[in-house]
Amino acid sequence: MSESTAPRQLRLIVESPDFDEAVTFFRDVLGMPEQPAFATTGDDRVSILHAGSATIEIASVQHVRNIDEVEGAPPASGPTLRLALEVDDTTRAVESARDSGLEIIAPPVETPFRSLNARVAGPAGWQVTFFQELETLERRSQREGFHTDDTRAH
Predict the structure, then answer these.
(1) Helix, strand, coil % over all residues of the chain, rounded to 5
(2) How many CA atoms lie within 13 A of 77 on its CB side?
(3) Low-confidence ranges of the chain (pLDDT < 50)
(4) In sequence order, what DSSP letters do the residues of 64-131 get, joined into one string?
(5) What is the DSSP pairing of strand 115-121 with strand 127-133?
(6) Please, which residues have CB within 8 angstroms of residue 68's CB and are 6 or more apart in sequence?
(7) CA nearest neighbour of 6 among 60, 50, 56
(8) Cβ atoms 103, 120 nearer than 8 A
(9) What is the CATH T-level fold of the domain 19-147, as seen in this structure?
């Protein structure tokens, strides 16, 4: 794909039976700024929130299970689509989530891949991981186990 046709934005659409709960979580608890968005009236509601830069992480079933084990969290039920949000301070993000009444699924844990991860029960049955990078990508790239898939032994 050429640079002119590469995506400029990633939007993850979270369909939630409790719209207010979801907006409160993402906008108020996580502090994501909201932009104006078009909707009609009544139950036709939408909120577009900025979450900084976005990446798509494609993971095998085994990798997802390994992350569950590392984070000390049970596997998510339902579709295997997860939300992971990089934060400046995982511990503070978890405290804010707890103060807002959210269930903490797994408390902060330092991972072998040098991040501080924690998992909370987000809206609509989603499990949301907060992660705080503990060293730069350049430094992590020098560690054993960090490769791109095309250079990793299969």
Answers:
(1) 30, 20, 55
(2) 4
(3) 1-2
(4) HHHHHHHHT-PPPSSSS--EEEE-S-HHHHHHHHHHTT--EEEEEEE-TTSEEEEEEE-GGG-EEEEE
(5) antiparallel
(6) 74, 75
(7) 56
(8) yes
(9) 2,3-Dihydroxybiphenyl 1,2-Dioxygenase; domain 1 (3.10.180)
Residue 47 CA to chain centroid, in angstroms? 18
pLDDT for residue 49: 92
- pLDDT for the residue numbered 79: 54
- Structural domain boundaries in the chain: 19-147
- Tell me, what's the pLDDT at 5? 61
59-82 burial, b for 16+ CB within 10 Å, e for fewer?
eeeeeeeebbebbebeebeeeeeb
Q: Which residue has the tokens 């989603």?
A: 126
Structure pTM?
0.74
Query: What is the arrangement of strands in the sheet containing 127-133, beginning at the earlier edge strand?
Result: 83-86, 127-133, 115-121, 104-110
Summarised one tens digit per residue, pLDDT across range 51-89 is: 888 887 878 888 888 989 999 988 876 556 678 888 999
Task: State the DSSP H helix or E strand holding residue 63, giving kind and residue range, or none if neither.
Answer: helix 61-71
